[in-house]
Design goal:
Two copies of one chain form a homodimer. With about 300 residues, chain A is of the alpha/beta class. Helix content of chain A is about 35%, strand content about 25%. Chain A has one domain (about 5-300): Ribokinase (UDP-N-acetylmuramoyl-L-alanine:D-glutamate ligase), CATH 3.40.1190.20. Chain A has a nine-stranded mixed β-sheet with strand order 5-4-1-8-9-10-11-12-13, with helices on both faces. In chain A, strands 3-2-6-7 form a four-stranded mixed β-sheet. In chain A, helix 1 (about 30-35) packs parallel to helix 8 (about 235-250) and helix 3 (about 125-135) packs parallel to helix 5. The interface between A and B is large, with 42 and 42 residues.
């Protein structure tokens, strides 16, 4: 199945209690594509970089089955740059520097062969950019998934509501779900979001795992209990990439298959946080992924025996 | 199997965003015993009440297979009284009034037939009182479980460490685990607690479920996603009661059986929070409990299918 994704490709500089990454590549689009490409190929990527972005990274994406025909390279301009520092517990962070650069006036353009996706993953970007991608696709994909963040909920609520009305699956974290649904209850927030359009809602809870709502049912995916999180950057995007990659590969949008997809997403996120940036995502073997799925199963399964 | 538990029996007055309970009965010992008695009988209860405590409540406990021979009734004195108000999100609360009354100088006394328990659940009380119960039991039970709280971690750390060194299972919430283990990582906190003595550690995470550590393994029990929590009072004690009641009934302290016991505990807690105080715990049918175990299974189980 064709999977199309749009999202930033960036330079990141990350500080955690464990060290500094220096200038590395990142961005939602890069994490989503890298993660998804372990599950389905090709992954069509729509994004924008500056002249300063290393050609060998783009070549590496191509070698991994990622079609970069939708990645614009702007002559004489600079790539989106973000510098952030995580707090001691790694659950919160401060943005130290955000230079939008080429992302500031990004107009996504889909090459012809990108305009018939079976599955579409809209990474976190302005709702206007996400809408523009949807509008370039004449026939509705089998599933459109979208990630967003508090900035867009606060600053462009109407545009966000418009794009949310056109999607099938919203992927959001717990704090953002409460903001968007205007209630402290995640169950009620999911109901409020269903009413905005999406049939499925996934609420990410960091170390506490994720909730999948849809079809009148709920599924609780466990978080992997870890001694240490090395760097959470990209975890949410790796989750989204693994999830949509698995759905595209299996071509099955049932609730039962989405449960499996949430586990696959959780597995990819659990790898991502083991090293700085996308480093761990670049060195996985398929067996690693299968083995960790078994870990998730062992972690959460039990038999009911009553005597 | 004989199950012995010690814990407060109290008057509570509870305010939540949904209303006021008025003066009702409560206390860790009451919740533990009520919850455990659905799974194993008799449950031997050690506690203390004042002259003001209603005789018909004690009779109701007896009808439910709870042996109250260890519940002292102090003439001319008043029962422990607690009044608290929950905040909007029901995750935090303020204690408005705490009158220790008979609990202030409580010296637990075990009748002869209470001194050979197979299983012992030490509800949240001062470590000195918990130790005094252990010392009245000549032969070590098959499993000793203990609940405690931040107050004892802060104020009687040495006594708490002494009693923790004598137990097999510590049941604690996430904030308390971080305090006791002196680390923000729950996995590291559990390791630190293992080193203090207990073979098993259960960390309760409220709406996010619970973690079971032991035997080099981890199990993640889901939280039941609820639209509304009506009153969280007693949820932790209902959890402990269901857990130890199931272990006593099955007489199996293996990691695999503790996984099931954590689910049974979670089931009992999920009922407790549906109404004020112990009300919901008083009206359960065995089928309700079995049915909700199936809900927990459906909530967290998935198949791994790879294509």
């Amino acid at each position: 199945m064709n999977l199309l994704t749009v999202g930033s490709v960036a330079f990141d500089e990350i500080e955690t209690p464990f060290g500094r990454s220096g200038r590395i590549v990142g961005g939602a689009g890069l994490y989503i594509a890298l993660s998804a490409a372990y599950h389905t190929q090709p992954v069509q990527l729509v994004s924008v970089v500056g002249e300063d972005f290393p050609a060998d990274v783009l070549e590496e994406l191509q070698r991994r089955g990622i079609d970069i025909a939708g990645v614009q390279r702007k002559a004489g301009r600079k790539t989106f740059y973000w510098k952030g520092r995580y707090h001691e517990d790694l659950n919160t962070r401060d943005s130290l520097v955000t230079e939008l650069n080429v992302l500031g006036d990004f107009e996504p353009y889909l090459p012809d062969h990108f305009r018939r996706p079976d599955y579409l993953m809209l990474g976190n970007l302005s709702p206007q950019v996400q809408l523009s991608v949807i509008e370039q696709i004449p026939q509705r994909p089998r599933m459109v998934a979208l990630d967003t963040m508090n900035f867009w909920i606060d600053n462009t609520p109407n545009e966000l509501r418009e794009v949310i009305s056109k999607i099938d699956l919203l992927i959001i974290n717990d704090e953002e779900a409460r903001m968007l649904g205007r209630t402290p209850s995640l169950v009620k927030a999911a109901q409020a979001i269903h009413e905005m359009g999406p049939e499925y809602v996934i609420i990410k809870k960091g170390e506490h795992g994720a909730l999948l709502f849809g079809d009148g049912e709920v599924f609780v995916a466990p978080g992997l209990p870890l001694e240490e999180v090395f760097d959470p950057t990209g975890a949410g995007d790796s989750f989204a990439g693994g999830l949509i990659g698995y759905i595209a590969r299996t071509d099955d949008t049932s609730f039962d298959n989405l449960k499996r997809a949430v586990i696959v997403g959780s597995v990819m996120a659990s790898f991502c946080i083991e090293k700085f940036g996308p480093q761990r995502l670049l060195e996985l073997a398929p067996e690693d992924i299968l083995r960790r799925q078994e870990v998730f199963k062992k972690l959460s399964h039990f038999d009911i025996i009553y005597h």
